[in-house]
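Model it.
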Amino acid sequence: MYQAHWGLQGRPFDSGLESSFYYPSNLHEAALLKLHYAIETRRSVAVLCGEPGLGKSMLLDAVFSQLPEFVAPTVRVVYPAMPPDQLLRYIARQIAPHEGSDTFGGIGQSIETIERLLRHNVGDKQHSVIAIDEAHLLESFGSLEPLRLLLNLATELTEAESAMTLVLSGSPTLLSHLARHTALEDRIAVRCVLERFGREETEAYIRHRLRTAGWNKPLMFDEEAVNLIQDLTLGAPRRINRLCDLALMVAYAQDKSKIDGQTIETANAELTSRSAAA
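Modeled.
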Protein backbone atom coordinates (compact mmCIF):
# COMPACT_ATOMS: atom_id res chain seq x y z
CA MET A 1 0.00 0.00 0.00
CA TYR A 2 2.77 2.45 0.90
CA GLN A 3 5.33 1.28 -1.68
CA ALA A 4 4.48 3.86 -4.33
CA HIS A 5 4.71 6.69 -1.78
CA TRP A 6 8.28 5.72 -0.91
CA GLY A 7 9.30 4.53 -4.37
CA LEU A 8 9.86 0.96 -3.18
CA GLN A 9 9.58 -2.23 -5.21
CA GLY A 10 8.09 -4.13 -2.29
CA ARG A 11 7.61 -4.09 1.47
CA PRO A 12 11.19 -4.13 2.84
CA PHE A 13 10.24 -5.35 6.30
CA ASP A 14 7.82 -8.09 5.29
CA SER A 15 8.73 -11.16 7.37
CA GLY A 16 7.74 -13.39 4.47
CA LEU A 17 10.77 -12.15 2.51
CA GLU A 18 13.45 -13.23 4.99
CA SER A 19 15.52 -15.42 2.67
CA SER A 20 15.78 -12.86 -0.12
CA PHE A 21 16.38 -9.99 2.34
CA TYR A 22 19.04 -11.84 4.36
CA TYR A 23 21.26 -9.35 6.17
CA PRO A 24 24.89 -10.53 6.52
CA SER A 25 25.71 -9.23 10.00
CA ASN A 26 29.03 -10.36 11.46
CA LEU A 27 27.32 -12.83 13.80
CA HIS A 28 25.06 -14.24 11.10
CA GLU A 29 27.93 -14.62 8.63
CA ALA A 30 30.09 -16.33 11.25
CA ALA A 31 27.24 -18.74 12.03
CA LEU A 32 26.67 -19.34 8.31
CA LEU A 33 30.33 -20.25 7.81
CA LYS A 34 30.33 -22.58 10.82
CA LEU A 35 27.22 -24.40 9.64
CA HIS A 36 28.64 -24.81 6.15
CA TYR A 37 31.86 -26.13 7.66
CA ALA A 38 30.01 -28.74 9.72
CA ILE A 39 27.97 -29.91 6.74
CA GLU A 40 30.68 -29.87 4.09
CA THR A 41 33.17 -31.70 6.31
CA ARG A 42 30.46 -34.25 7.16
CA ARG A 43 30.34 -33.64 10.91
CA SER A 44 27.65 -35.21 13.07
CA VAL A 45 26.00 -32.27 14.85
CA ALA A 46 25.82 -28.49 14.52
CA VAL A 47 23.88 -26.28 16.94
CA LEU A 48 22.34 -22.86 16.26
CA CYS A 49 20.91 -20.98 19.25
CA GLY A 50 19.30 -17.62 19.86
CA GLU A 51 16.27 -15.94 21.33
CA PRO A 52 13.08 -15.89 19.24
CA GLY A 53 13.15 -13.31 16.46
CA LEU A 54 16.93 -13.14 15.93
CA GLY A 55 16.92 -14.81 12.52
CA LYS A 56 17.60 -18.52 13.11
CA SER A 57 15.07 -19.73 10.55
CA MET A 58 16.26 -17.15 8.02
CA LEU A 59 19.82 -18.34 8.55
CA LEU A 60 18.85 -21.97 7.98
CA ASP A 61 17.05 -20.88 4.80
CA ALA A 62 20.32 -19.27 3.65
CA VAL A 63 22.29 -22.41 4.50
CA PHE A 64 19.91 -24.68 2.60
CA SER A 65 19.94 -22.39 -0.45
CA GLN A 66 23.74 -22.59 -0.67
CA LEU A 67 24.39 -26.29 -0.14
CA PRO A 68 26.80 -28.00 -2.58
CA GLU A 69 25.51 -30.67 -4.95
CA PHE A 70 26.82 -33.61 -2.93
CA VAL A 71 24.50 -32.69 -0.04
CA ALA A 72 21.23 -34.56 -0.57
CA PRO A 73 18.64 -35.36 0.49
CA THR A 74 17.87 -32.68 3.04
CA VAL A 75 15.10 -32.65 5.63
CA ARG A 76 13.71 -29.65 7.51
CA VAL A 77 11.56 -30.30 10.58
CA VAL A 78 9.94 -26.97 11.44
CA TYR A 79 7.94 -28.10 14.47
CA PRO A 80 9.27 -31.20 16.27
CA ALA A 81 6.69 -31.31 19.10
CA MET A 82 5.85 -34.98 18.59
CA PRO A 83 6.75 -38.34 20.15
CA PRO A 84 9.97 -40.00 18.92
CA ASP A 85 8.16 -42.56 16.75
CA GLN A 86 6.28 -39.82 14.91
CA LEU A 87 9.42 -37.70 14.54
CA LEU A 88 11.41 -40.57 13.05
CA ARG A 89 8.49 -41.46 10.79
CA TYR A 90 8.33 -37.87 9.55
CA ILE A 91 12.09 -37.81 8.88
CA ALA A 92 11.90 -41.15 7.07
CA ARG A 93 9.04 -39.94 4.87
CA GLN A 94 10.90 -36.76 3.98
CA ILE A 95 14.21 -38.48 3.35
CA ALA A 96 12.66 -41.23 1.21
CA PRO A 97 9.43 -39.80 -0.26
CA HIS A 98 9.14 -42.50 -2.95
CA GLU A 99 9.00 -45.40 -0.48
CA GLY A 100 5.70 -47.22 -0.02
CA SER A 101 3.46 -46.19 2.88
CA ASP A 102 4.00 -49.54 4.64
CA THR A 103 7.68 -48.58 5.03
CA PHE A 104 6.80 -46.03 7.71
CA GLY A 105 5.02 -48.15 10.30
CA GLY A 106 6.92 -48.14 13.58
CA ILE A 107 10.28 -46.87 14.82
CA GLY A 108 12.06 -49.95 13.48
CA GLN A 109 10.70 -49.50 9.97
CA SER A 110 11.50 -45.79 9.99
CA ILE A 111 15.08 -46.46 11.05
CA GLU A 112 15.45 -49.16 8.39
CA THR A 113 14.26 -46.69 5.76
CA ILE A 114 16.69 -44.00 6.93
CA GLU A 115 19.55 -46.52 7.14
CA ARG A 116 18.87 -47.74 3.60
CA LEU A 117 18.97 -44.20 2.27
CA LEU A 118 22.13 -43.31 4.18
CA ARG A 119 23.85 -46.49 3.03
CA HIS A 120 22.97 -45.66 -0.56
CA ASN A 121 24.29 -42.14 0.02
CA VAL A 122 27.61 -43.41 1.29
CA GLY A 123 28.01 -45.48 -1.86
CA ASP A 124 27.30 -42.41 -4.00
CA LYS A 125 29.48 -40.16 -1.81
CA GLN A 126 26.42 -38.07 -0.98
CA HIS A 127 25.73 -36.51 2.41
CA SER A 128 22.37 -35.90 4.06
CA VAL A 129 21.31 -33.04 6.33
CA ILE A 130 18.47 -33.10 8.84
CA ALA A 131 17.71 -29.67 10.33
CA ILE A 132 15.29 -29.31 13.22
CA ASP A 133 13.81 -25.91 14.09
CA GLU A 134 12.52 -25.29 17.62
CA ALA A 135 14.86 -28.07 18.74
CA HIS A 136 14.53 -27.03 22.39
CA LEU A 137 11.14 -28.81 22.28
CA LEU A 138 12.80 -32.19 21.68
CA GLU A 139 13.69 -32.70 25.34
CA SER A 140 10.05 -32.55 26.48
CA PHE A 141 9.14 -35.39 24.11
CA GLY A 142 12.18 -37.55 24.86
CA SER A 143 13.46 -37.27 21.29
CA LEU A 144 17.10 -36.33 21.86
CA GLU A 145 18.14 -39.88 22.71
CA PRO A 146 16.57 -41.45 19.57
CA LEU A 147 18.36 -38.82 17.49
CA ARG A 148 21.65 -39.76 19.15
CA LEU A 149 21.05 -43.40 18.25
CA LEU A 150 20.30 -42.32 14.68
CA LEU A 151 23.64 -40.52 14.63
CA ASN A 152 25.34 -43.69 15.86
CA LEU A 153 23.90 -45.45 12.83
CA ALA A 154 25.09 -42.68 10.50
CA THR A 155 28.60 -42.88 11.95
CA GLU A 156 28.82 -46.67 11.73
CA LEU A 157 28.18 -46.52 7.97
CA THR A 158 31.47 -44.70 7.33
CA GLU A 159 35.02 -45.06 8.58
CA ALA A 160 35.86 -41.49 9.64
CA GLU A 161 32.87 -39.26 8.86
CA SER A 162 29.17 -39.21 9.48
CA ALA A 163 26.70 -40.10 6.74
CA MET A 164 24.51 -37.19 7.87
CA THR A 165 24.69 -33.89 9.72
CA LEU A 166 22.05 -33.09 12.30
CA VAL A 167 21.48 -29.33 12.66
CA LEU A 168 19.64 -28.39 15.85
CA SER A 169 18.24 -24.86 15.96
CA GLY A 170 16.43 -23.46 18.98
CA SER A 171 16.32 -21.16 21.97
CA PRO A 172 19.29 -20.93 24.38
CA THR A 173 17.66 -23.59 26.61
CA LEU A 174 18.67 -26.10 23.95
CA LEU A 175 22.26 -25.88 25.17
CA SER A 176 21.28 -26.86 28.71
CA HIS A 177 19.21 -29.75 27.35
CA LEU A 178 22.15 -31.02 25.33
CA ALA A 179 24.41 -30.75 28.39
CA ARG A 180 22.29 -33.46 30.00
CA HIS A 181 22.95 -35.77 27.05
CA THR A 182 26.73 -36.05 27.17
CA ALA A 183 27.02 -38.61 24.39
CA LEU A 184 25.11 -36.30 22.04
CA GLU A 185 26.86 -33.13 23.20
CA ASP A 186 30.24 -34.75 22.53
CA ARG A 187 29.30 -35.02 18.85
CA ILE A 188 28.69 -31.28 18.42
CA ALA A 189 31.15 -29.90 15.88
CA VAL A 190 30.08 -26.24 15.97
CA ARG A 191 27.98 -24.05 18.27
CA CYS A 192 26.53 -20.83 16.87
CA VAL A 193 24.87 -18.31 19.18
CA LEU A 194 23.00 -15.35 17.70
CA GLU A 195 22.69 -12.11 19.67
CA ARG A 196 20.70 -8.89 19.34
CA PHE A 197 21.92 -6.03 17.16
CA GLY A 198 23.69 -3.03 18.63
CA ARG A 199 22.66 0.48 17.59
CA GLU A 200 24.95 0.63 14.52
CA GLU A 201 23.90 -2.83 13.38
CA THR A 202 20.24 -1.89 13.70
CA GLU A 203 20.74 1.10 11.41
CA ALA A 204 22.74 -0.98 8.94
CA TYR A 205 20.01 -3.64 8.99
CA ILE A 206 17.29 -1.08 8.24
CA ARG A 207 19.39 0.42 5.45
CA HIS A 208 20.04 -3.03 3.94
CA ARG A 209 16.37 -4.01 3.92
CA LEU A 210 15.39 -0.73 2.27
CA ARG A 211 18.09 -0.95 -0.39
CA THR A 212 17.05 -4.51 -1.20
CA ALA A 213 13.52 -3.18 -1.80
CA GLY A 214 14.82 -0.53 -4.21
CA TRP A 215 15.56 2.49 -1.97
CA ASN A 216 18.71 4.25 -3.22
CA LYS A 217 18.42 7.60 -1.43
CA PRO A 218 19.62 8.75 2.01
CA LEU A 219 17.96 6.85 4.85
CA MET A 220 14.40 8.14 5.43
CA PHE A 221 14.61 7.25 9.15
CA ASP A 222 16.26 10.14 11.00
CA GLU A 223 18.69 9.66 13.90
CA GLU A 224 16.03 10.05 16.58
CA ALA A 225 13.88 7.43 14.85
CA VAL A 226 16.73 4.92 14.67
CA ASN A 227 17.60 5.52 18.33
CA LEU A 228 13.99 4.87 19.32
CA ILE A 229 13.83 1.74 17.15
CA GLN A 230 16.90 0.42 18.93
CA ASP A 231 15.47 1.20 22.37
CA LEU A 232 12.03 -0.23 21.65
CA THR A 233 13.10 -3.40 19.85
CA LEU A 234 16.32 -4.08 21.78
CA GLY A 235 17.95 -4.95 18.46
CA ALA A 236 15.78 -7.99 17.67
CA PRO A 237 15.32 -8.22 13.86
CA ARG A 238 11.74 -9.49 13.99
CA ARG A 239 10.71 -6.61 16.24
CA ILE A 240 12.57 -4.15 14.01
CA ASN A 241 10.64 -5.48 11.01
CA ARG A 242 7.25 -5.06 12.69
CA LEU A 243 7.98 -1.55 13.95
CA CYS A 244 9.56 -0.25 10.74
CA ASP A 245 6.85 -1.72 8.53
CA LEU A 246 4.14 0.03 10.53
CA ALA A 247 6.19 3.25 10.70
CA LEU A 248 6.35 3.35 6.90
CA MET A 249 2.58 2.97 6.82
CA VAL A 250 2.00 5.67 9.46
CA ALA A 251 4.30 8.14 7.66
CA TYR A 252 2.56 7.39 4.36
CA ALA A 253 -0.87 8.00 5.93
CA GLN A 254 0.42 11.34 7.27
CA ASP A 255 2.01 12.19 3.89
CA LYS A 256 5.47 12.52 5.41
CA SER A 257 8.70 12.32 3.44
CA LYS A 258 10.77 11.42 6.50
CA ILE A 259 10.28 9.12 9.46
CA ASP A 260 11.01 10.86 12.75
CA GLY A 261 10.79 9.93 16.40
CA GLN A 262 7.12 10.87 16.62
CA THR A 263 6.30 8.49 13.80
CA ILE A 264 8.08 5.66 15.61
CA GLU A 265 6.26 6.44 18.85
CA THR A 266 2.91 6.40 17.02
CA ALA A 267 3.70 3.08 15.35
CA ASN A 268 4.89 1.56 18.62
CA ALA A 269 1.73 2.70 20.42
CA GLU A 270 -0.31 0.97 17.71
CA LEU A 271 1.68 -2.25 18.10
CA THR A 272 1.35 -2.09 21.87
CA SER A 273 -2.42 -1.62 21.69
CA ARG A 274 -2.69 -4.59 19.33
CA SER A 275 -0.73 -6.78 21.74
CA ALA A 276 -2.90 -5.68 24.66
CA ALA A 277 -6.07 -6.41 22.70
CA ALA A 278 -4.79 -9.87 21.78
